[in-house]
Amino acid sequence: MRRRLLVRALWGFAEVAVSLGVVLLLLVAHQLWWTNRLARDDAGRTVQALEREWGVPVSPSVPGPGAGAGPGAGVAPGAASGPGAVAVPGSSSSAAPSDQPPFPRWDQAYAVLRIPRIGLTAPVAEGTGKGGVLDRGYVGHYTRTAQAGQAGNFALAGHRNTHGEPFRRIDRLRRGDRITVETRDAVYTYTVDKSLARTAPSDSGVIAPVPRSGITTSAGYGEPGYYLTLTTCTPEFSSRYRLVVWGKLTAMRPR
Q: Which domain holds residue 44?
């Protein structure tokens, strides 16, 4: 009798273990495949909608492979949260953008980011919240930083893993690589200049008007300019640290 009960108990345990394994596999598939597919489709449609609105030839493909960060919450001004996000500094640049409203609507996609080196085309939306921006495969603009082409620091965040992962491969960017930001009225070209392989999520200096790490003080700049900052989580599948890439504005072409 005891042996029979033991066999039944072991069989029941095995069934539970198999069921849990199947559930975990489904969760992993959802995170690593399904969320990417949905987000990339959404982002691709958004890019095409923006191009139609601007009256330019519509891109034939959806945003290419990239990356974003792991789980996290949306970013409120002055707080570090959400994948790829760092704390927003208290000040913003003083110049007003010349080709778009000073304050795009929250979660509004209003620009297109292109990084040829990593095959990325992605919409840029206002804010770095998860549901309305990052989880849709968009790149999020830190709301209290400069806009594209504006004096100061145009700072962006994106997922490195899951949900479209637009910034997955920004660690491959090298000095001299070209990055373009397209808006309704102009195309801005930034050139990659520097990077910071790892810093804390609270290192708000990396997205300051004159970007400079408050932790690795040798990383960054010492004078005002026209900067672009890309931030995401590192290492992959973790949100423990932030990876930062900086560029400088090198060209502007009106449409």
A: 1-255
Per-residue H/E/C for 126-191: ECCCCCCCHHHCCEEECCCCCCCCCCEEEEEECCCCCCCCCCCCHHHCCCCCEEEEECCCEEEEEE
CATH number where 142 lies: 2.40.260.10
On the question of pLDDT at 101 being above 80, the answer is: no
* Residues near 12 by beta carbon (within 8 Å), at least 6 away in sequence: none
Structure tokens at 175: 């000095």
What are the backbone angles phi and psi of residue 4, rounded to the nearest 5°? -65, -40
* pLDDT tens string 162-172: 999 999 999 99
Query: Number of structural domains, the chain?
Result: 1
Percentage of the chain beyond pLDDT 70 is 69
* Per-residue H/E/C for 13-80: HHHHHHHHHHHHHHHHHHHHHHHHHHHHHHHHHHHHHHHHHHCCCCCCCCCCCCCCCCCCCCCCCCCC
The tokens describing 150, both together, are: 């504006």
Q: pLDDT tens digit string along 38-91?
A: 999 999 999 999 999 998 776 655 444 433 333 333 333 333 445 555 544 433
Residues catalogued as catalytic: 159, 233, 242
Q: How much is the pTM?
A: 0.76
Distance between alpha carbon 57 and the CA centroid of its chain, in Å? 25
Q: How many angstroms separate the CA atoms of 185 and 170, rounded?
A: 27
What lies within 8 Å, CB to CB, of 236 at 6+ separation is 67, 160, 161, 168
